Amino acid sequence: MPADAQFDHNSATFIEDPYPLYERLREQDPVHFSDRYNGYFVLTRYEDVRRALLDWHVFSSAQPGVTSIPMSVQRDFQEIPLEVDPPEHAEYRRLVSDLFTRNAIAKLEPGIRRIAAELLEPLREAGCGDFVQDYALPFVSRVLALFLQVPAADAARWMKWTEDIFHGRLTDRARADRASQDMIAYVDDLVAQRRRTPGDDVFSVLVTSRFHGRYLTPAELRGFGVLLLNAGQETSVNGIGNSLWYLAEHPGDRQRLQEDRELLPGAVEEFLRFMSPIQLLGRTVRQDTPIRGRTIPGKSTVAVCYGSANRDSRVFPAADQCRIDRHPNPHLAFGAGTHTCLGAHLARAEMYVAIDEVLTRAPDYQIDSAGGIEFTPHGDLRGFWKLPVAFS
After folding, report:
1. What pLDDT, on a 0 to 100 scale, did the predictor assign at position 119?
2. d(CA 91, CA 96)
């Protein structure tokens, strides 16, 4: 394999455009070993990624699998309840799963639309803005506040912590650590409030539920809370920014969606496939595991590359083209199997409403390249951190 194809998801080249490297790895070295970050294996073909996601007996999500590769949200918490294997994972998940169903999320849509409209109006009046900093990021943060039943003003604090964690993890560890500790303190305060006056929100359910006959520990509650605040933002912000960028660059597809909104749900799925917001996650193999003539030694870390699997032409015809009417579309943007993203329905609703409201209220936008486009600073995520736009 060419030396320049060495896999490093935090390299500037990869962050700018990971897809040429993915293609080379899929064809030449689908079970690639990278000596970066203490060494890890990289799975890039759809079939292998899906197998790893489904076969939790071999590909474990328990620590240190998810955090042994430097992710943008490398977490400093001892217990993250959903990052364990069955049966504990299913039992933790069952505590709150009713709050994340399609029907439960659908009840939030009027409030989600109000938030989108409120954020778009000042951008439209100003004639310019940033579709990530001024729209996607505050939109997702405020929707999360709506979902968690906390004051909307709290969203501004989460946004600052998110920036400090995402941008500081590799470049300013002290800054990221301060944000992490602030987030933990916020979760502890919220848990204490819900203990005093429980309601029907996620944290109330968590503090009043029993797990194996006991209440959740402070560490478990912290882990749930921080996961909700972090994971509840990253996928949706990236998904919205990616989609709006694509529609600016492809006005024909934007026109099709404006004229036929019935295409929008399928387009959201295609945007998730074509520009996967989460590019890779880690697993740890429990035992020596043969794949495609190569054996991954037990206890090795494996990066399962959603972003590559979703561009595998063995599964998706014209995989490097975004087809907003693609069907079927068995993408893996939210994972698969027992660890399918708990918040997938919420993320889809956020993307759908955010795009729909732009097409309704501010469809005549263009990317302002002179304004300074920035990608998210870590390659395990795929999206924009700054996306300046102007309105005709």
Report:
1. 98
2. 10
How would residue 180 be classed by pLDDT, with cut points 50, 70 and 90? confident
Query: pLDDT, tens digit, for every residue of 257-301?
Result: 999 999 999 999 999 999 999 999 999 999 999 999 999 999 999
Q: What are phi and psi of 118, to 5 degrees?
A: -65, -35
Per the structure, the complete domain to which residue 285 belongs is given by 6-148+231-385
306 falls within a domain = yes
Give this prediction's pTM: 0.94
From 282, 316, 314, select the one nearest 299 (Cα to Cα): 282
Calpha distance 315→196 (Å, rounded): 52
Residue 369 buriedness (CB in 10 A; 0-12 / 13-18 / 19+): exposed
Q: Are 390 and 126 in contact (CB under 8 A)?
A: no
Question: pLDDT value at position 377?
Answer: 83
H-run or E-run covering 329: none
Query: Are 281 and 56 in contact, with CB atoms under 8 Å apart?
Result: no
Q: Does residue 132 fall inside a structural domain?
A: yes
Q: How many domains does the chain have?
A: 1
pLDDT in tens, 263-273: 999 999 999 99
* Residues 236, 278 contacting (CB under 8 angstroms): no
Question: Is 205 inside any structural domain?
Answer: no
Q: How far is CA 328 from CA 269, 273, 277, in A?
A: 10, 12, 20
SS (H, E, C) 131-162: HHHHHHHHHHHHHHHHHHCCCCCHHHHHHHHH
Tokens of 43: 């799975």
Fill in the amino acid letter for 220. Answer: E
CATH number, residue 312: 1.10.630.10
CB 261 within 8 A of CB 276: no
- Mean per-residue pLDDT over the chain, rounded: 91
CA distance 192 to 265: 39
* Nearest residue to 221 via CA among 195, 247, 240: 195
Distance, CA of 102 to chain centre: 18
Of 333, 344, 346, 349, nearest to 264 (Cα)?
349
Q: For 44-99, what is each residue's pLDDT tens digit? A: 999 999 999 999 999 998 855 555 566 654 444 445 676 788 888 899 999 999 99
- Report residue 217: phi and psi, to 5°: -75, 160
The answer as to whether 157 is a domain residue is no
